[in-house]
Structures are given as C-alpha cells and as structure tokens.
Automatic annotation (TrEMBL):
Keywords: Cytoplasm, Methyltransferase, S-adenosyl-L-methionine, Transferase, tRNA processing. The lineage of its organism: Bacteria, Bacillati, Bacillota, Bacilli, Lactobacillales. S-adenosyl-L-methionine binds at G114, L133, G134, D135, Y136, V137, L138. Residues 1-225 form the tRNA methyltransferase TRMD/TRM10-type domain. Homodimer. GO terms for molecular function: tRNA (guanine(37)-N1)-methyltransferase activity. GO terms for biological process: methylation. Coiled coil: none annotated. The gene is trmD. This is tRNA (guanine-N(1)-)-methyltransferase.
Amino acid sequence: MRIDVLTLFPRMFDGPLGESIIGKARERGLLDIRVSNFRDFSDNKHQTVDDYPYGGGAGMLLKVQPIYDNLAAIEAEQPIEKKRIVLLDPAGKPFNQKMADDFSKEDHLIFICGHYEGYDERIRSLVTDEVSLGDYVLTGGELGAMVMIDATVRLLPDVLGNNTSAQTDSHSTGLLEHPQYTRPAEFAGMQVPEVLTNGNHKLIAEWQLKESLRRTYLRRPDMLAKLVRTPKMEKLLKEIEQEEKKA
C-alpha cells in the first residue's frame, strides 16, 4: 500500500510513522508512506496557502490551488493507480473500525490535513471521502490522519506478527475484547481465572465470548443494539444480566 499525506507540518509525522508497527512495515516494504508540504505547491512568491473568505467571516480558508497541484503531482507520478482521497474535516463522516477495514483494502490512500478555519469548498470536489475523527475540533487534521493511518495499516496482511490479532480486537467483532492475562497466575492476591489455565479450549472460548459480551454490556450497550446475535449469545447475555443484577 502507498499512503500520501498532504500537510503544512510534515515533521509532525516523523515519529508516529517511523516507529513501532508502522515503522517496521515500512522497513519490510509492506508500506510506502510519503508526506508532502502543500505549501511547496503554492503558485505565489510568498507561498501563501490561505486567504480571507468571500462574503466575510472569521478566520482564513485553505486555498484550492496548492492542494490541487499537490494532488496533480501525485497523479502524474502514479497515473494508473486508483486513489482514495480522504479530507480530514470535523463535518465529515465519523471514522470507525469498518472504515479502517475499507481503507486497508485500497492500494493508494491520500490524506489531506486541513488547518486554519476551513477549506475553500472547491477542495471537496477533489476528494472521495470526508472523514472526522469525532465530535470535537482539533488544531489541524494531522493527528486525525495519524490515527486513521495507524488503524488502517495494522489491518494490512503480514503487518502484525499474528494475523488473527486484528480480527479479534475490540470493535472488529462488533464487541469489546474480553479481559486478557499473562504470567504470573497470581500476583498480589489477584488471580487469573482458573478456566484460562485448565487447557480446555472449548471452555476458554466460551469464557472469552461471555466476558466480551459482559464488557460490552457494561461499557458500550449501544454496540449490543447493533450486534447480530446468535442463540448462544442471547443465552449468555441473559446470564450476564442476572449476574450483574446480583453484583
């Protein structure tokens, strides 16, 4: 996969995109990330990228020309490859795990990081997606792009050491992930549940499903409303409801 990022602050990406899982994926040739400063594409001698809005209003808007020319340069370099162009915008569609999964199936992603008050509306005609990290406003789109890139890249084949890890993560299954434990089996009076140490894989799988349902029931009941439930899940949920009432 190739990922391009258009930003006014390229150095913000040096650490997050060069370390850990993403850094290793780049080293192994699984991922090509390129960060460009769209100020370099401004067509005036002062390299301005923003201007006052027509009709008045607070703040400055990003101009269409530098971003248009930056995208054109990428297109000239990769004219055949289909591109998905993502505009980071508080008014966009909320980012979620399904969107990360969709992005991971693309060959070429481009993220445009906004700044200042907003965008010249014509920039929106250049993109395929307008996406928001959540219902709040950041100084710019850079942090949002980093989050989306991280969530996407970890779903690429062979990026994680265990390819099943991403499949069982919270949100990937429609549920929050069950509690997990490692050695020692007892620490400061706190015990690992006995079912996890007995080697019975059927019982372990049932415990994991039940505790995943329990955690979702307690913390994110809104997710249960969207979940396609099996008869076994319904049975376990009834048990959980009774258990939590007694707790």
